[in-house]
Amino acid sequence: MDTDRPYITDEEMLAEEPVNSGIQPQSVGAVACCLGAVLGIGGTAANIIAVACGGSCAVPTQ
């Protein structure tokens, strides 16, 4: 599949300035509140889930 984008080397890609997407990591408490609201589960269960999936639910962008 041709994307019509020119090929760049690893060195060229790493030399570029990173794009600030504005996405900020969420705290475990914020994730637990979201889980509680969306799934309708209690605070204790939401906190356990938020802590257990901390790596995938609250991934920092940088």
Describe the fold and architecture.
This protein is mostly helical and 62 residues long. It contains four helices and no strands. It has helices at residues 10-15, 28-39, 43-52, 54-57. Helix 2 crosses helix 3. The mean pLDDT is 78.
* Secondary structure: helix percent: 40-55%
Morphology: elongated
Tally of DSSP β-strands: 0
Secondary structure tally, helices: 4
Order of helices and strands: HHHH
- Rg to the nearest angstrom? 18 Å
Beta-strand residue fraction = under 5%
Helix/strand structural class:
mainly alpha
The biggest beta sheet reads:
none
Would you tell me the overall average pLDDT? 78
Compact description:
The chain is mostly helical. The chain contains four helices and no strands.
Which structural traits does this protein have?
62 residues; 4 helices; mainly alpha
Secondary-structure blueprint of this entry?
Blueprint: H1 10-15, H2 28-39, H3 43-52, H4 54-57
